[in-house]
UniProtKB/TrEMBL annotation:
Keyword set includes Transferase: yes
InterPro entries (UniProt xref): Acyl_CoA_acyltransferase (IPR016181), Hat1_N (IPR019467), Hat1_N_sf (IPR037113), Hist_AcTrfase_B-typ_cat-su (IPR017380)
Name of the top EC class for this enzyme: transferase
Sections of the chain in a coiled coil: none
Organism from which the protein derives: Linum tenue
Protein name: histone acetyltransferase
MF (Gene Ontology): histone acetyltransferase activity
EC nos: 2.3.1.48
Keyword Transferase applies: yes
Family affiliation: Belongs to the HAT1 family.
Domain Histone acetyl transferase HAT1 N-terminal: 5-178
UniProt KW keywords: Acyltransferase, Transferase
Length: 445
């Protein structure tokens, strides 16, 4: 019988910027999140022997060509997968047709014929200023100069060019952004922020190169404001780890401030993006006067003595007045400010080695509060695993205690130990993130 072949095993994808790179051994290979999810229910392709699929995606026109080879086909009981139909699930455009070209010659021709594609399609958009160049008060603090050849253009989705461009980018979004779905290009609430390099020095016939983009949704906020929410952000693999994501984020922050939106939020941020975002926000917060005052008060309290000797450990959260000032001026929402707060404390405790035990207690206390509730267990929620014939890891009961009184349900020794291990793991992970962001910010100051 036909065991099939996994898509991950037989498909390779390359992002190429010239016809010379097509087939070259040093072409930039894309590492997708998971190709199996695009093929049938079990991620396998059936009916082919010796199957090899190479997909070339142009970083000039964002069209693609699939080179498919195999020794033979036969129905081994599971049928023969329709490759063209299956491939189009992740290389076709969302609404405006197909990016997958049938002819390799046609694909190679696009590198010379479409050198002006990006410059032409973004010409109907609005060029946005980087905060470093317009000196807007409250904008981000930067280390180093913004590169003059970078440009961010905003295109609103009621512009057909914006929908057409995004549709060509959909395959890369699906391949490279975990858990993503294409945005609705018919919804004018979406805005596309496109980061480009104005002149491609490597290829004289390419007038503008797309380095990355972000899709932002603009919500109405009563009574007369709007909110910005980042839905997707992607810097193309060859241009990652060069500060381009930060540059794009800084421009979006500047828009939020200059247009005086209510706040700026992010939909389910991935860890790598959240790290860049937090580094940027911590740097902005360190120079913000209301936060300086709140931090000084917190640090003075911590320097008075060891927390372990106190009968009650206070909640170390930013004051509500400072949180409101941060939202109003910097457009950072309360959830993100809370994420940054412990990092700000860490950076303010100098030397940190002297206060490291107390700081770890702060982190542990907040983590415990999140797991067990504000009273450290007796007054919050608890999750108890129960025996079941269903899935073992899905079987539990969650309950609340009444009136702050201890519950009659008690954790046994193993469950208590498991809970302590989970807490320790959470605290260790959080401390690693705090130290990593703090180190990055200190290098940039």
């Amino acid at each position: 019988s036909d065991g099939g072949v996994e898509a991950n095993e037989c498909i390779t994808i390359y992002l190429v910027s010239s016809k010379d790179e097509v087939g070259a051994s040093d072409a930039a290979r894309i590492t997708p999140i998971d190709l199996n999810s695009f093929f049938e229910e079990d991620g396998k392709i059936y009916g082919y022997q010796g199957l090899s699929i190479t997909i070339w995606v142009s970083s000039i026109s964002f069209q693609a060509y699939a080179d498919i080879s195999y020794k033979s086909t036969s129905d081994g009981g599971k049928g023969v997968t329709d490759l063209k139909s299956a491939l189009q699930q992740f290389v076709e455009q969302n609404i405006f047709g197909e990016t997958l070209l049938d002819s390799k010659d046609d694909f190679l021709q696009t590198f010379s014929s479409d050198g002006n594609y990006i410059r032409s399609i973004i010409s109907s958009g609005e060029v946005l200023q980087h905060p470093l160049t317009n000196g807007h008060d409250g904008a981000s603090t930067l280390s180093g100069k913004a590169t003059s050849d970078l440009e961010v253009v905003r295109m609103v989705m009621d512009n057909p060019d914006a929908g057409s461009l995004y549709s060509r980018l959909v395959p890369l979004v699906l391949l490279l952004v975990d858990g993503s779905n294409p945005i609705d290009v018919t919804d004018s609430g979406w805005e596309l922020y496109v980061l480009t390099q104005k002149k491609d020095l490597e290829h004289e016939d390419v007038q503008s190169r797309l380095l990355g983009f972000s899709a932002i949704y603009r919500f109405y906020h009563y009574p007369d404001s709007t909110r910005l929410r980042l839905g997707q952000i992607l810097v193309l693999p060859p241009y990652q780890s060069k500060g381009h994501g930060r540059h794009l984020l800084e421009v979006i922050h500047n828009v939020a401030i200059s247009e005086d939106v209510y706040d700026f939020t992010v939909e389910e941020p991935l860890d790598a993006f959240q790290h860049v975002r937090t580094c940027l926000d911590v740097q902005r917060l360190l120079g913000f006067e209301p936060i300086k005052e709140a931090l000084n008060s917190t640090v003075l309290y911590l320097k008075q003595g060891r927390l372990s000797k106190k009968t009650h450990v206070p909640r170390f959260v930013p004051p509500s007045s400072a949180a409101e000032d941060v939202r109003r001026v910097l457009k950072i929402n309360k959830t993100q400010l809370t994420q940054c707060w412990e990092i700000l404390i860490y950076l303010s405790l100098d030397p940190i080695d002297k206060y490291v035990d107390d700081f770890e207690m702060i982190v542990s206390h907040r983590a415990k509060e999140e797991i067990l509730g504000k009273d450290g267990g007796s007054g919050g929620k608890q999750v108890i695993e129960v025996p079941s014939e269903y899935k073992e890891d899905m079987s539990f009961v969650m309950f609340k205690t009444k009136d702050g009184k201890p519950s009659s349900v008690e954790l046994d020794e193993d469950q208590t130990k498991q809970q302590e291990e989970q807490l320790k793991q959470l605290v260790d992970e959080r401390l690693n993130v705090i130290k990593s962001v703090a180190q990055k910010v200190q290098l940039q100051v």
